[in-house]
Amino acid sequence: MQMTFRWYGEGNDSISLNKIRQIPGIKGVVWALHDIPVGEVWPVQRIEEVVNQAKKYGLNTDVVESVNIHEDIKLGLNTRNKYINAYKETLKNLSKFGVKVVCYNFMPVFDWLRTDLFKEMEDGSTALFFDAKKVLSLTPEQVVRNMEENSKDFTLPGWEPERLKDLQDLFDQYKSVTEAQLLENLTYFLKEVCPTAEQCGIKLAIHPDDPPFSIFGLPRIVKNKKDIQSILSAVDSPSNGLTFCSGSLGGNPNNDLIDIVQSFINQIPFAHIRNVKHFEDGSFIEASHRNEDGSLPITGIVNTLFARNFKGYIRPDHGRHIWDEVCRPGYGLYDRALGAMYLQGAWDANVSLRNRSLEKTNFQNI
Question: Hey, which residues are catalytic here?
Answer without folding.
Answer: 207, 245, 272, 317-318, 331
